[in-house]
Amino acid sequence: MSDETLIxxxxxxxxxxxxxxxxxxxxxxxxxxxxxxxxxxxxxxYLHQHFPDFSRSILQKCIQAKCxxxxxxxxxxxxxxRQGDHIRIWLPEPPHVAVVPEDVSLEVLYEDEFLAxxxxxxxxxxxxxxxxxxxxxxxALAFRFKDLSKHNGDYRPGIVxxxxxxxxxxxxxxxxxxxxxxxxxxxxxxxxxxxxLAITSGVLDRDxxxxxxxxxxxPHDRIKMVATDDPxxxxxxxxxxxxxxxxxxxxYVRLQPRTGRTHQIRVHLASVNCPVLADKxxxxxxHLNLIDVDxxxxxxxxxxxMPRQALHAYRLRLLHPKKKEVxxxxxxxxxxxxxxxxxxxxxxxxx
Length: 351
Description:
The protein is an alpha+beta fold. The chain folds into 3 domains: 28-91, Structural Genomics Hypothetical 15.5 Kd Protein In mrcA-pckA Intergenic Region, Chain A; 107-189, Pseudouridine synthase, CATH 3.30.2350; 195-315 and 328-347, Pseudouridine synthase (2-Layer Sandwich), CATH 3.30.2350. The protein has helices at 43-50, 56-64, 137-144, 177-188, 264-271, 280-283, 290-293, 335-347, and strands at 28-33, 68-70, 73-74, 86-91, 107-111, 115-120, 168-174, 193-201, 208-212, 214-217, 225-228, 238-247, 250-257, 288-289, 304-306, 311-319, 326-330. The strands form 4 sheets. Strands 5, 6, 7, 8, 9, 12, 13, 16 and 17 form a 9-stranded mixed sheet that branches. A 4-stranded antiparallel sheet has the order 1-4-2-3. Strands 10-11 form a two-stranded antiparallel sheet. Strand 5 and strand 6 (115-120) form a beta hairpin. Helix 1 (43-50) packs across helix 2. The radius of gyration is 21 Å and the shape is globular.
């Protein structure tokens, strides 16, 4: 997950919208200032981090067409960005920009005139994309709120950061542009406190610790990420954890990612042989049944306990850009978590 313009990126599908011929000054203009932690990256790599909905080849076309300027001058894709560089890019919009408001129930955890924090259910894509033009969180937000920031374009109104489709929990929404820019900067400078809850397949041996390994793209699988110690093929990443409860073969754990790399929590836990339960990509299974917990049970009593990856964005804390006070929101533990934990306590006690 990359703490960039869109934070906590957990999308499983690469979104590659069609594009026409880029033209300087045409389309949505976005301004950015390079921070210290990203200095030294190639320009095209840096832009792809910020705009993962556009393929690198599309962004390279934008650079070639002089739709990207650094300190008011065009640059090549291979340019190594420097701290303090001012970048402006004119992004073309994909064809499906009209967000249709949909009356989908939303649990609002916090709301004022500047921002809102909602509890995203699992199995909901955050914003419209290839294969998911309706039924997204953005469709629901467009119906629920009168005003939403257009800082990230017309088809991602209000979206400051993202959660994976099958990750539930707190997600932040901006209602106006100035607030959106401030919130994005807080994410990029790692000033937003994020806390997750997970159930893992496997037992963490320490009560509390941190996992610090770089995360990069899998060499053969475009969907997966991998933990690596190679600075040339991965970005620094750190996740703190604290065990809440242990069972035979499973762990209930609280996690605090200090960086925001793609699939960070999932990759880090998998790297210590404790993948998130029912995470198909990193654990090989997409659900947990009661009979998996206790094979001695009558098959007639079997039922699905965890129908998706057992990862929940539990708490978010940040400085309110306008009120200048700390606000926090907590998303209650989902029913499938409660059900799974109850079964583990009954059938898989640690002692």
